Amino acid sequence: MPGGETAAARLERWQKAGGAAAPIITALLAFLVGGLVVLATGSNPIEVYKGIWNGTGLEWFYRVGSFDVTIPFTDTKVWFPWDTGSRAAENLQQTLLLTATLILLGLAVALAFRCGLFNIGIQGQYLLGAYMAVWVGSSFDGMNSFAHITFAVVAAALAGAAWAGIAGILKATVGAHEVISTIMLNWIAIYLGLYLFGQGGPLQNEDQVFSPTSNTVTEGAKLPVFWGDPLLQGLHVGFFLALVALVAFWVIISRTTLGYQMRAVGFNPDAARYGGISVARNYFLAMAIAGVFAGLAGAVDMLGWRFTIGFSDIQSSTWIFVGIAVALLGRNTALGVGLAALVFAALVNGTAARNIPPEVFDIPEQAGNLSTTIQALVILFIGADILILWLWARAGQKIGVGRSSPL
Amino acid sequence: MSNVAATVEPEGIARETIGRGLAYGGIAAGVVAFWVALPPVMTRSPLVPFLIGLVGVALGGAAIWSGAGRRLGGIAIAVAVLGFLLGWLATRSNVEALDTVFVWSALLAATLRAATPLTFAALGGIISERSGVVNIGLEGMLLMGAFFGFLGADKLGSWWAGVLCGIVAGASLALVHAFVSIHLRADQIVSGTAVNFLALGITGYFFIDVYTDQGTPGDVDYTPEITIPGLSEIGFIGDAIGKMNVLIWVALAFVVLAHFLLFRTSIGLRLRSVGEHPKAADTVGISVYGVRYAAVIISGALAGIGGAYLSNGITHSFNENLSAGRGFIALAAVIIGKWRPYYAFLACLLFGFTEALALRLPGAYGEDQAWTTLFRALPYIVTLVVVAGVVGRSIPPAAVGRPYTKQ
Question: Rounded distance, CA B398 to CA B136, Å?
Fold first, then answer.
């Protein structure tokens, strides 16, 4: 039909366009409104965003020159177009370090989302993974390094899976809404940690009585650093673990029966049940696998650069919820989560107190709250993607969040 | 349950009634098993709670056997075992400790105090959900109320101005949630999550902006306690409720008012019709959007009062993330309370009691005992267990969580 186009095809084209553009417009809109908040408090938003950008280290990519680079774990030097020792490189290492964590946290939310579950419990699952990693990593001294790391990582993943699995079982058997149960599990995980590593707790570092913290991960259990100075939080191999997790997520969701079943349940649990799929089984498995991802996030942080977990780390662990914004901005796909994790890692790292020039904010910690506000706006605008899509093409598409039991 | 009962013959119904009676007896036995070990009875022999607990287990087993449904009998057995365990724990504690913790009048007063923010938020949740809008943003609205309630009382110099600020702050956040989830038809859970983070970012930002690092001042006009002449002289009742915060009385009045409004007025009927069958309501000329907007904003205002009481009436200070999951506990109370004000208030009392107990128990065992930190997880554990036990029997408004599209 020359010149003609079916309504369905037009809608599909619009949705595709909206699908690619909506997250970008969303993020831009969130930064714009965030800038207005900054303006309202009397600071200059352009200065603030410039400060944030400089802190992300992303400028490293356009500083091209002629440099030498040492191939990791060898002494061989080869030519490289970027300076791997610059300040920007250090900032970029920080950003990528956080990207690895956020990829894993984002996947933990995204996988549950695909099955129609809202996993707001990544905080508790991350913490359980972190507790387990730091305990295994700081015990069993003298073990073979590879075995020790593997042991700690697997134990952390299982701890996260078990914690998320509680919510999964409750959802599958009695229909307890996962939002309430996972939030409660978050708080239980926090107090569990405050007990374990707190004053007089069984896992407290006995040498530091007055600022309670865990024992330090032994040298053998630390993840090898392949870029940057291991003493200055260089980029560790956990980054590759996160990339592998992205691929694993894609394979599970798109290439396995389990993934097909989980998506069917997420799309319409009643229809899935009618089609012979066990909804309960998939709810449980989706939460457990999500817990594996969140537990791994705790493991790579503890074994990669934190090495200890202290009282205040546990108390101020609300940053973990960035994973929700990552999953939503990434539209619960592997590629999307990877890119969104980079965006939010850059935002969080750029707003870290040490990266904000003192003339921008009187109190540098303010930047962190600005970052939280921008994350909230991103989630809000994504929820309201009908607005974005209307701006784009007057065609709406709701993101797929299944509901079943009452809330 | 009811539709199953309707299909069985009369003698089946009689059996079920007997079975239910047995199960409730088992639950009562579990409570008594704990109670006998506390003041004033305070038996010191673990055998007494054991025997009473055993009776409870037997009654629960008999209830299952008689066919009252496995669930209720199972709950009875669980309560009986828990009652025995707690009673046994109490017989192992020293007498003075029990006497300091279980001052029943003081415990009742503390229960009412802790239950009040939950009650305000739960009433808000009921009104919002009865209109068909899920409000998991209650947590953020509590937090907004807590910060701006405190700020208002501090800067404007009177507690009621503070409460007004809390109301406005809670309602403003609710307006965002309302717009995004009603007009933009966003997923209500995603939107609620977004406003929670928004509240975290905004309150955190202004908290640091206004109070820097010094924390909140100590000379604020706190919400006053009212002494009721006559009542305050009557022994136990006087100690418990003779001198109570004005906002606790307001909460009690609101519970009655909300019940009356929902079930005895045409406004309530309209609200419920919009939540049950919006299309029918629309057909008879009720503005679905108008009712939902009003309900969500009122829910934010109520949560705002609860937040203002939390900071300005209980803690007498503000700290980041002060609400600490209370909005979600209130949401659990809404579900457990079957979307009814009186039942939800009872659930809030239960959660308030656990919170009061969690605050007092560590003192009884000595603050230096590390494991007593775990008591602080008690409210969250109890919420998790109760939600798991009750949720399946609780039927939400039919249209809850579904955006309505005007025809």
Answer: 18
Q: pLDDT digits over A337-349, tens only? A: 999 999 889 888 8
- In SS3 terms, B261-296 reads as HHHHCHHHHHHHHHHHCHHHHHHCCCCHHHHHHHHH
Phi, psi of B105 (to 5 degrees): -65, -45
φ/ψ bin of B187: left (φ > 0), alpha (ψ from -120 to 50), beta (otherwise)? beta
Residues in CB range of A148: below 8 A, 6 or more apart: A136, A137, A140, A218, A220, A221
Q: How far is A252 from chain B, CA to nearest CA, in Å?
A: 24
Evaluated on CA atoms B127, B128, B130, B135, the torsion sign reads: negative
pLDDT digits (tens, 9 = 90+) for A52-91: 788 788 878 877 777 777 777 777 777 777 777 777 888 8
Distance of CA B56 to the CA centre of its chain: 27
Looking at this protein, which amino acid is placed at residue A366?
Q
- Give the burial class of A359: count Cβ atoms within 10 A of its Cβ; 0-12 exposed, 13-18 middle, 19 or more buried: exposed
Phi, psi of B204 (to 5 degrees): -60, -45
| DSSP H or E stretch at residue B172 | helix B159-178
Question: Which of chain B's residues have a Cβ under 8 Å away from the Cβ of A179?
Answer: 136, 189, 328
For chain B, say whether A364 makes contact (Cβ under 8 Å). Answer: no
Q: Does A391 touch chain B if contact means CB atoms closer than 8 Å?
A: no
Query: Cα separations (Å) of B286 from A356, B234, B276?
Result: 52, 50, 13
Query: Residue length, chain A?
Result: 407
Cα–Cα dist A400/A150, whole Å: 36
What is the Cα A398 distance to its own chain's centre?
23
User: How much is the pTM?
Assistant: 0.87
- Of all residues in chain B, the one with the smallest CA distance to A372 is B201
* CA–CA dist B209, A41 (Å, integer): 9
Q: Kindly state whether A213 is in contact with chain B, defined as any CB-CB distance less than 8 angstroms.
A: no
**What pLDDT score does A405 carry?**
43
Token output for B3:
């539709």
Residue A301: the pLDDT is: 96
ipTM of the complex: 0.86
A177 neighbourhood in chain B, CB within 8 Å: 335, 387, 391
Chain-chain contact of B197 with A185 (C-beta, under 8 angstroms): no
